[in-house]
Amino acid sequence: GSTCKQVDCGERFDKMGTWSGSSAYLGEYTLECKEGAFVLGGTQKAITVSCPADGRWESNTLFRNQPPKCLSPTQELHDARLATVRVWLNIVMSLCCICGAALAAGLTMGLLSLEPREMEIIQRARLHDCLDDRERERLEKQKDAARHILPLIKDHHLLLVTLLLLN
Q: Which residues form the CNNM transmembrane domain (predicted)?
C-alpha cells in the first residue's frame, strides 16, 4: 500500500505578531498581533485561517493578495521617517562624492599644469629687484606658495596616487 502525506501549508512568521495553532490541512492557524498592531486591512487584533487542500496559504484582496500579517501604524510611520532619512543621507553622500571627485580632478589638472622650472625661477627671484613694497609683498607670497607646491610637483607620482585615492 501507499501512505498519504499530510498537506501542510508551512509555518508563518510575523515580526508584529505571533502565529499559533496547526498549519496542516484544515487546521486552524491564528495570528495574534502585538500591542498597537492590527491585522492588515482592518482593526482586528487577531485572525484565524485554515490551510487549504493545495497546501498553499490563501491570499485575498482583504490582505492585498498576501497572507495575513500584523501592521503597526506607529511602526509604519517610524519606517517611513527612517526611509526619508535614508534617502536624504544618500543624496548628501552622493553630492559629497561628486564634489570630492570634482575637487580631485581640479587639483590634478591644476597641479600638473604647473611647471617645476617656473616654481624654481620664482624661488630664485630676489626681493631687492622689486620696484616697490607692493611688488615685493606679492613676490614674497609667490615664493611661499612655490616653496609649498614645488615638493608636490617634483613627486608627481605620489601626487597622482593621492588624488586617485581621494577620487
A: 83-167
Cell of 132: 616697490
131 alpha carbon, distance to own chain's centre: 58
- Say whether pLDDT at 22 is over 80: yes
Question: Model confidence over 126-167: pLDDT tens digits?
Answer: 888 888 999 999 999 999 999 988 888 888 778 778 777 876
CB 119 within 8 A of CB 149: yes
Do residues 100 and 126 share a domain?
yes
Its pTM surpasses 0.85: no
In a domain, 33, yes or no: yes
32 three-class SS: strand
Structural domain boundaries enclosing 56: 17-71
* Number of domains, the chain: 2
Output the pLDDT for position 83: 97
> Residues in the chain, how many?
167
Where does 22-92 show beta strands of DSSP type E? 28-33, 38-39, 46-50, 70-71
